[in-house]
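Two proteins were folded this term; both appear here.
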Amino acid sequence: MSDTAEVIYDLRGLKCPLPVLRSRKKLAALKAGDVLTVETTDPLAVIDIAHMCNEDGHSLVETVAVGKGHRFRIVKGA
């Protein structure tokens, strides 16, 4: 049995920089290895979420275009 958390965070309707700021705050509350799935409609999130992950040491393992936005799957780094 795994003790890794999987959290879905709906940030649709928010504009830059809120998706990154709220994702960063949510990730801070998780432990290393936990997975955060973020849903956004902000077109700049494709660039901003990837940059945040690179900057903060998280792994962006999936980016998928869905409807009018994107879904990002992030594994929290150490």
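Next, the second protein.
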Amino acid sequence: MSINHLLKGQLKFLSQHFEIVAVSGEGKDLDECAEREGVRTVPIEMRRKISVLQDLKSLIQLYFLFRKEKPQIVHSITPKAGLLSMLAAKFAGVPIRVHTFTGLIFPYRTGFLQKVLIHMDRLLCKAATNIYPEGKGVKEDLIRYKITDKPLKILANGNINGVDLQHFNPGKIGEKERAKLRQTLWISEKDFVFIFLGRLVREKGITELFDAFTKLDDKSEKPVKLLLIGPFEKVFDELPNEVVEGLEAHPNIILTDFQKDVRKFYAISNALVFPSYREGFPNTVLEAGAMNLPSIVTDISGCNEIIENGKNGIIIPPKSADKLFDAMRLFLDNPLEIKKMGEEARMKVEQNFDNQTVWNAVLNEYQDLLKTADSAQ
């Protein structure tokens, strides 16, 4: 899923300069990636959870793939795939082994599990030749926990892919389309709509969001809705049953599953609310900004690099339903200020996170790495 959703358009762009082979788990996401990006794909299963036998199988498959393809560069972007890919690439003699840390798990774990995760990331970095943190917060954590002593370079202000500003453009969604969606979801034009996009799990702050919104809905005389776009997850970090039941039963909370095109949902919303516990550099906040939405985010890596408190959104402490309630009430009570924040949000994305800027930074980095490798021979 990651390679399909995190790198939209980038592989097609890079394929104009290199032969690109995309490797990920088999399924419709990989098929969709191949069709959209026009690149060759190879299915290799890599599970998110630790599974010794499957991980060993994946490592061997990657090794033989790299021996066969003889790539000059292998670039990985997720934790498990990163460790397996960097090890396999090193064993196979790939000269340039690149990993981008899109988010770190170990700072938010404790005890034995944290030690295991730190050891895995240190091993990944030893196998890689070049490390790229997705943002300043990720870079600081890599340094703080002494994950590697290799240089850490942030490309193009941090985000791994940037935003397609032509695609995420509020002007592309007409009023008829907005009205139709509002009618389908039972949303009035008078409703102030908070939107959340992502997995409905604990670490995304969904419990705090439910508590804050319930309180807001009880206390406010203004009509308000909470629109949740994303699936409940049953394997990782499952929500408590009472929260799931509360979300499903609340008359002003609207649940929809994963959406292929989220633009029209942004277009009928007034603000993004994103109370996550941890992120790398969240695309959701960038996409919302591109759609003229201000955001309420937590003071964590990535989010606090996109949002300037009071300018294009509000930053609150993580895991605080009370602070989240205060921020949501402030948004609800100040519609004119919120509209101005939304305009600032679009401007911030235009100036810093346009996908063409990011793609060119990746291209230039690849070319520099290849030149350096050639001169060293």
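The two ends are 37 Å apart (CA to CA). Residues 170-352 form a domain with the Rossmann fold fold (CATH 3.40.50.2000). These notes refer to the second protein only.
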